């Protein structure tokens, strides 16, 4: 299958944004602080018209990246990004979501 112009344009945007996101996050996972090895799109490409923004990307380690694809992870990641970088996401009660996910320790780190 031949890539579309839209796909190629998105790939160029991602390639430019990844180093910006890695620098912003200091190369560390925004969840646990370990060395990051991937850039994750918080709101998936399939669920937004413009997933390739600095606000929608975060550096994650392999373990947290696997977790990031679970059901509740998006709300928690948005909370972390809002707290660390001041991004404006519509966030529900962060502490309650962290407790439900067994991540109470993050409330002190964020």
Your description of this structure?
- The protein has 110 residues and is mainly α.
- It has one domain (5-109).
- It is 46% helix and 7% strand.
- It contains five helices and two strands.
- It has helices at 5-24, 62-68, 73-85, 94-100, 106-109, and strands at residues 38-41, 57-60.
- It has a two-stranded antiparallel sheet with strand order 1-2.
Span between N and C termini? 43 Å
What form results from the Cα inertia axes? globular
- Quickly count the helices: 5
Which regions contain 5 or more consecutive residues with pLDDT less than 50? 97-110
Largest sheet properties: 2 strands, antiparallel
Structural class: mainly alpha
| Percent range for β-strand residues | 5-15%
Lateral strand order in the biggest sheet: 1-2
Reading the helices and strands in chain order gives HEEHHHH
Percent of residues in helices comes to 40-55%
Question: Compute the gyration radius: what is it?
Answer: 14 Å
- Domains (count): 1
Total strands: the figure is 2
Report the average pLDDT across residues.
77
Compose a concise summary of this entry.
The chain has 110 residues and is mainly alpha-helical. 46% of the residues lie in helices and 7% in strands.
Features:
single chain, about 110 residues, mainly alpha, two-stranded antiparallel ribbon, 5 helices, 2 strands, about 45% helix, disordered C terminus
Please outline the helices and strands.
Elements: H1 5-24, E1 38-41, E2 57-60, H2 62-68, H3 73-85, H4 94-100, H5 106-109
Antiparallel strand pairs: 1-2
